[in-house]
Amino acid sequence: MLKPKQLGLRAIATSRYSFGFYGAKLCSVLNVVIGGGFAVVNVVVVGQILSAVSDYTMTIAVAPQVDPSIPALDTGLGFTGSFLSFLAINFSSASGWCSIASDYYCNYPANTKSWKIFFLTLAGISIPTIFVTVIGVCLGNAAISSSVNPILTEAYNDHGLGGLLRESFHPLRFSKFCLVLLVFLVLGNNIAVNYSSGLSMQLLGHYFHAVPRFIWSFVNALIIAILAIAGRQHLSTIVSNFVSLLGYWTVSFTLILLVEDQWFRRKEGYNLLVWDVPNKLPWGLAAVMALLTGYLAGGVTGMSQTWYIGPIAAKFGGYGGDVGIYLSGVLTLIVYPPARWYERKVTGR
Question: The pTM is what?
Answer without folding.
Answer: 0.84
